[in-house]
Amino acid sequence: MHEHTHSDGVTCPDPGETVRSHCGRHASERRAADSPRPARAGRGAPPGLPTVRRRQILLAGTATLAALAGCGSGDGDVPDPVTLTTDDACEVCGMIIPNHPGPSVEIFYRDQRPSGHENPARFCSTWEAFEYDFERDWTVEAFYVTDYSAVDWSLSTAGGDQLLSRHPEASAFVDAESVTFVVGSDVKGAMGRDLIGFSNRADAEAFRDDYRGSLSAFNDVTSETIAGLSQG
């Protein structure tokens, strides 16, 4: 582990430290589980208008405050992902999440009760989660997606479609800003073509090469991206 020491004598690990894990398909790199994740502002935008990245403004302010306070002032209140069970239905379509294939998403909102229940908001597809978030001017504390670099994923076939395995356990989730998405591949989830996240970019590139689609970072996903997926 690499460290650096400030003028005030405080020693901190270098940013961006990763830990390595392995799955049945690729070696992958994941961010250390205890890396601080600052709260982020919601990204709602009216349909058809460019998405406003209010998150970036809040993050800039958070980074400034953290720099003033020192390395030991990480936000300890950022919630951790939870395991999804058959009690958990998608906020958008109402499907029971573990009973269907493909990526899952959890979004924790500050001072909100999605669908009248406690956080997180839960989704059976990535594009539904983005759509939900775009429609709300809510502050996001954590946005987690399934990390297919960290699980031993598999494909099944039904009705001529290739379906991606579901991984509802808490350990399968990662901060959405850390992944590279494969968008609109030939592999489908609960709601058809989707955004499939990989914390290791090389894994995303290999998946795209095998199953087509395009690559996207989290902050490059727009309402237009989601509209293209939601229409099939």
Give a written overview of the molecule.
With 232 residues, the chain is α+β, with helices and mostly antiparallel strands. The protein has one domain (18-230). Helices cover 19% and strands 28% of the residues. It has 4 helices and 14 strands. The strands form 4 sheets. Strands 5, 6, 7, 8 and 11 form a 5-stranded antiparallel beta sheet that branches. Helix 2 packs across helix 4.
Short description:
With 232 residues, this protein is an alpha+beta fold. It is built from four helices and 14 strands.
Mean pLDDT figure: 79
Give unreliable regions as ranges.
13-39, 44-74
Backbone shape: globular
H-E string: EEEEEHEEHEEEEEEHEH
**Amount of beta strand:** 25-35%
Rounded Rg: 18 Å
* Proportion of helical residues: 10-25%
Number of helices: 4
Most strands sheet: 5 strands, antiparallel
User: From the helix content, strand content and strand pairing, which structural class follows?
Assistant: alpha+beta
- Terminus-to-terminus distance: 45 Å
Domain module tally: 1
> How many DSSP-defined strands?
14
